[in-house]
Sequence to fold (449 residues):
Amino acid sequence: MRNHVSWIVALVVGFGLGLLTALSLGIGGGRRPAQPPFVAPTPPVAGAPRPRPTPPVAFRKVPLRPDDPVRGPSDAAVTVVLFSDFQCPFCSRVEPTLKQLQDAYPDKVRLVWKHQPLPMHPNAIPAAIASEAAREQGKFWEMHDKLFAAQQDLTPSAFERYAGELGLDLSRFKAAVAASHGQDRISADQQLAGTVGANGTPTMFLNCRQIVGAVPFETIKAMADEELKKAEALLRGGKAGPGFYDKACDANLALAPSAPSPASETASPTPAPAVAPAALGVRPDDPVRGNPQAPVTVVVFSDFQCPFCGRIEPTLAEVQKTYGDKVKLVWKHQPLPMHPQAIPAAEAAEAAREQGKFWEMHDKLFQNQQQLGAQPYDQFAKELGLDVGRFDASRQSGRGRARIQEDQAVAGRIGVDGTPTLFVNGERIVGAVPFDTIKAAIDRQLAKR
Fold:
């Protein structure tokens, strides 16, 4: 019985998957690629040797930068690209496994770091910025090791202490952190994570072969052995040089079923089954615009920093102008992980909702989408005549964050993996679609009455 329970616990713990999606361009929307369903293996018979589970095979082309942090030889036959988060406990668990892998194959495996700070980890982006500030002085991996060794103390003062211990130029380090020098690189990694399906952490790619979660050493070693055999066949006794990583990846991609590519902004919407209105989790105090008794309800899952969500706002205004009392709009939060201001903006909207001005703050946020940050939120609150002290206290209390996470959980249950996603009396519409697309859905619903 103990073996059976431990097997289940290991299976669950092995996946440090974050909620939500990193970016891939959908129908004019921020999306994450659909992932194949996970099928649990049959539990082993008590007392019998436990078979090693075989991870599902998936391949994604993961491009590298010349200055990405690399650990290991440049002519390695196998490149492990790691999407990770300094505050993620599962990422911390996989670190010794990766060291064990590199120790086992010191001349054959190299590790490349990619940032994927998840939205539920408030210290993940600051830690990533600290690591980037250290990278500028040639000590990314030394800071990386410090951050994981002290994962419970990811604070600005700790970052400065680590920088001092590593012998960094402290003034230069502090200036880089204050200026968020690494933010563009971090955001680029997050966007890349979305396009290759690295929506949880840790996610690794061995010569572009995907492996998800804090898997045990035996699992990753078995995959590395398979990839080494493929690499040796390609090398034919030679050495892996510049360009070999791309060659190995292309060979893997040629052998594997093609991964679904991100849809272009101009692609046609994909029909999706309707969702029962009750499944949309509309609360009595959710923000509503329009006639509360309207026969058609449009529930919008949106993100204040998503450019496609900004594009659909005028369309939604046109919908309400056209249909008047026949349509009401209900807001649901779905902040995407590659937008660092999406959650703070959502919390600001929730703090304004408590004072009866959600939609006024909503409008401010979309009108000033390129300037989202701590200072604008207080300024917007003043312009709207809010009690700024109460507004700030609400933002700091976490009340808004709890509601946002409830909306994200609803989104996950009904398969909302991008923004904007609309439900017209349960009929799903994905992306910043034109007015006529939404109008057709509304007309269909009205015709049923």
Notes: The mean pLDDT is 84. Residues 58-255 form a domain with the Glutaredoxin fold (CATH 3.40.30.10). The longest helix spans residues 217-235. Residues 360 and 384 are 7 Å apart (CA to CA).
